[in-house]
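User: structure tokens for this one?
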Amino acid sequence: MRLDEGMLAYFRGIVSEMVARFGISPAEAVARVNERYQGADISPWPDLMCHELPEYWAYGLYYFPDGDGRLPTGSEDDDEGIDVA
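Assistant:
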């Protein structure tokens, strides 16, 4: 996908969050981003997705939704009861 400098930095932030929070390699994090967003129409900075912090998208790229369709957010209070096994 083609990204302007602002969105490229934003996606790099998502990759950094995945590496820091989940202990995966940068290569795996980049591969997950590429797999999910290939062919996506991403607008220049600030795309609509920028209304969420990079960690929001990182959790969605790392975890599958639970039985109720919920994804963890990184907040202990909000994530209570979500099965992340």
